[in-house]
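Subject: sequence -> structure tokens, single chain

Hey, anyone have a minute? Need the predicted structure for the following. Not urgent.
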Amino acid sequence: MYKILISIFIISSFHGGRTDSSGGHRDNINGGYHYHHGCAAHSHSGGCRYDYKDCERNYSYSDYSNDEDGFDFWSFLIISWLVIIVGSFIYDSITTVTTRKREKKEEINNEKQRIVEEEKRIKENRTKKFDSIRKSKNELSLKIKDLIRDFNNTDDKKHKFLTAISIAKSSYNAKKYTDTIYWSEEAQKSIPKLPLSYNVKDFYSLLEYRGLAYIQLGEYLNSIKVFKRVLKVGKSVSNKIYILNAYANIGICKLMLNQHNEALEDLNSAINTNIATAITFFYRAKVKYIISDKESDYGLDDINKSIDLNPKFLKSYSLKAKIKLKKESYYSAISVINDGLKIDKDDLYLTYLRGFYSYKNNDYNSAFKDFNKVIKFKNTSQASYKLKENQYQGYAHYYRSKIYQFVWTKLENRKSLNRIKLRNEDLKEAIKYNNKKAINKWMKISGD
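Reply:
Had a minute. Here:
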């Protein structure tokens, strides 16, 4: 607007407009002074050449010494004004387009740089984590070897008993669950009849680690037997912690055996001790999620208590997201997952789950980004494909293959992508994880 006002002011200043008492005014375009007194602009050099009666109001300019008629001032004014406006509009349009292109290019470059830095940071954290785990395993292995040597070199029954328990604990922490069971049994063999003078806490530890090892091995019935003994010990000494852990683990085992109503009873008993942990509320919420109908809360209250008790227990966020999906929408579920990722933004299961929900909600670009992140962290060793906790990486490959095949994702290089080739590569990777969906898909497209 200011450009329009300035242009009008400039153009209007070319001509004075009004005449003075002599019937003329200064000529701001050509310079000098000329007369009108009702006629076309002219000079009085040598006398006035017009007969006033013959004057015509042409309102045209002429040079003060020129005898020819000038041009139409108002036409000049309007045309000049239009030229300035159109020129200004074109200039602004070109400038805006150029600015937007530059900003878009900067945005793309910044995003690329951010992704590179994020991948570098995650890779470094991953390396540190693996190094820490490797170091811990080495330390545990050395500790176990020393404890076994100590166990074999002593004849003292109590010392053997306590050493065997320590070996069982260390073996459990090293994820050697068969060894855990073996050494807990060795501890019990060292003293067939446990004297009353022995610490009940040590006997509880012996049973607890054996029961937990059975759970990790999927031997739930054996675990139930062990924790029933723990329950008996807890009641005999009125120890609420022992009672809580016994009921909670029995409930978890029954949940895994699909004995949902019995599991709910045991978990209720655990929570009634009034010292329940986040894990106990989590598993009761899980049971309610499975057996509840549409009119119930699907365990939402329990999962909220679990998060309140331990906000860093990330499994609670994944279950809450599933509950929110049943009760509300994908947006609510993804919002819960985002809360969990604020605590650990590199948690792969939550990242995969968010990608899966985004995929189901037709937000393919967000899904693609999350699946990429999950895939970048995978361990390519042959053993890792068999680990249960890594199976969602196989699903990330599978669903990314579906995006390549069926969805036009807004990728910068989508036109150059050989999407069928990339789809096939993802399917082959998913098959390494024994992903049944990928296997069935590959059989269809390959004709096998």
